[in-house]
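Worked problem 6 (solution included).
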Amino acid sequence: MTQHNSSNTAADDTEEITLLSQHACHGGVQRFYQHESTEIGLPMRFSVYLPPQAMAGETCPAIIYLAGLTCTEETFMIKAGAQAIAACEGIILITPDTSPRNAKIPGDSDAWDFGVAAGFYLDATQAPWNKHYRMHSYIVAELLPMLLASLPMDKSRVGIMGHSMGGHGALVLALRHPELFSSVSAFAPIAAPSQCPWGQKAFTGYLGTDESAWADYDATALMQKQSQPPFPKGILIDQGFADKFLVEQLHPEAFKTACTSVQQPLTLRYHEGYDHGYYFINTFIEDHLLHHKQQLSS
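Solution. The predicted structure is:
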């Protein structure tokens, strides 16, 4: 990993990390990395955008973005248009891949909503998935500590956000690890996965048929268990009314009800005409980055 006080050549002594490519972008640099993951047991890729402030050695807030089904570590960085805003605001952006790759599990590429590119940001307990599908622990126990040690980012100013499956992951990781994440937002999240076909399929395959085990990865269920508002400064969610997955898969109102029950401030915004894709994200990404910047700066 390139150190924050060097140019492009210094390497982290504790991890074998390969810089795959880098690109000048809005005065900063967009980088793509690969490393041998101990949590996953396979090579994993991730991307980092360093704004000009970070390149100059300034300690910056950071946001981890979790992408949705079928996506990779590149999708957000290519499509969201976030770097221009991050450069202006001095925000580091980090995006991991959405699942292990090349696990060679029979059938892992048969469906677009389960297996490869559909890790659901959980730690699988069912064989054969439990050997490699450990995205939850990968993010909190490996990727984040590695980056905190290598980049000019403040551990007290880390936010998390995501889209669809990644929105689910962001909400779950934030609720389970408020000591790590100081702000959270989501675009069209799978907000109650235990209640929708995508979540039920993934949870059955990865976690088994005992639905009591699903609650640890269900943002609505986790919010219902809170004794006090976990993010008193507020959570931001944007949702398009033209999203074809809204009614069957996403259930933002269930999450809103859970937030109301524990007095968790939630800004849930609906938008006419917007669907589930990256034109929607591109339109409102500035609002989300500013939401995080405000909370991470206070």
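Discussion: The two ends are 29 Å apart (CA to CA).
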